[in-house]
Amino acid sequence: MKPQSSCVRIQKEWDIVGARHVARDMAKELGFGIVDQARIATAVSELARNIYLYAKSGQIIFEKIDTMESKGLSIIAIDSGPGIADIGQVMQDGYSTSGGLGAGLPGVKRLMDEFVIQSEMGKGTKITTKKLVR
Amino acid sequence: MRIPILKLHNYLLISIQTEIDDKTAIEFQEDLLDKIYTTGATGVVIDLTSVEIIDSFIAKVLGDVVAMSDLMGAKVVLTGIQPAVAMTLIELGIHLQNIPTALNLEQGLIKLHQELGE
């Protein structure tokens, strides 16, 4: 039996690629179509890069959702980095402090079905997202 | 892992076959600009048929390399972007405007011929 959950530590740049692979493999196993697999892997890539860039280290936890009502993948990105001062601001398209495209978090929200962000200054950030198989 | 760059007459051809991480993307940017400089290439096709994921960072590097090559005098065409990748990029909010694209390598070469008036 395949594992129901998986945890990827993000500490170095290559871990972003590792997280992307785990995301795609789990999405495939769950029966997501090719476009949803790309959406999930891309969202995970953005989340992992945010951890690597802003918090230096953290983890991404993948959990399969398999109940009577729904089937899908839950992805939780946790770090104990500096936290986000203004969540409203980072959720705006085009906002970036790193010279990127500023597509990161609002983009992830659009790619996934559910998106919850919690952050506390000096403590860290937790982003919970879900994608359901249709 | 470096991405191979092939020279064909005045053109450079690149087919990205590996998973692109941030470091590979940056190295590729430098390698391509070097190669344009040393070969005097006027056109470049970057084929993305085998690329399954383009996130915001990779998209930025690709967009930048097109602008940088343009500044040096070489036209770049991106080809073969998969349907799933195109959908994901637009949903992510990345439109890659002003970047020449074509359906496949063949169309990309035709586009280069037209753009360069050859």
Can you tell me about this structure?
- The complex is a heterodimer of chains A (134) and B (118).
- By secondary structure, chain A is of the alpha+beta class.
- Chain A has a single domain, classed as Heat Shock Protein 90, CATH 3.30.565.10.
- Helix content of chain A is 37%, strand content 30%.
- Chain A has helices spanning 14-29, 34-55, 87-90, 104-111, and strands spanning 5-10, 58-66, 71-79, 114-120, 124-132.
- In chain A, strands 1-2-3-5-4 form a five-stranded antiparallel beta sheet, covered by helices on one side.
- The radius of gyration of chain A is 14 Å and the shape is globular.
- The mean pLDDT of chain A is 91.
- Chain B is α/β, with parallel strands linked by helices and 118 residues long.
- Chain B has a single domain (6-111), classed as STAS domain (Transcription Regulator spoIIAA), CATH 3.30.750.24.
- Chain B is built from four helices and five strands, in the order ββαβαβαβα.
- Chain B has helices spanning 22-39, 56-72, 83-92, 105-116, and strands at residues 6-8, 11-15, 43-47, 75-79, 101-102.
- A five-stranded mixed beta sheet of chain B has the order 1-2-3-4-5, sandwiched between helices.
- In chain B, helix 1 (22-39) runs parallel beside helix 2.
- The N and C termini of chain B lie far apart (34 Å).
- The model of chain B has no long low-confidence stretch (mean pLDDT 94).
- The interface between A and B is medium-sized, with 28 and 22 residues.
Question: Can you give me a brief rundown of this structure?
Answer:
The complex is a heterodimer of chains A (134) and B (118). Chain A is an alpha+beta fold.
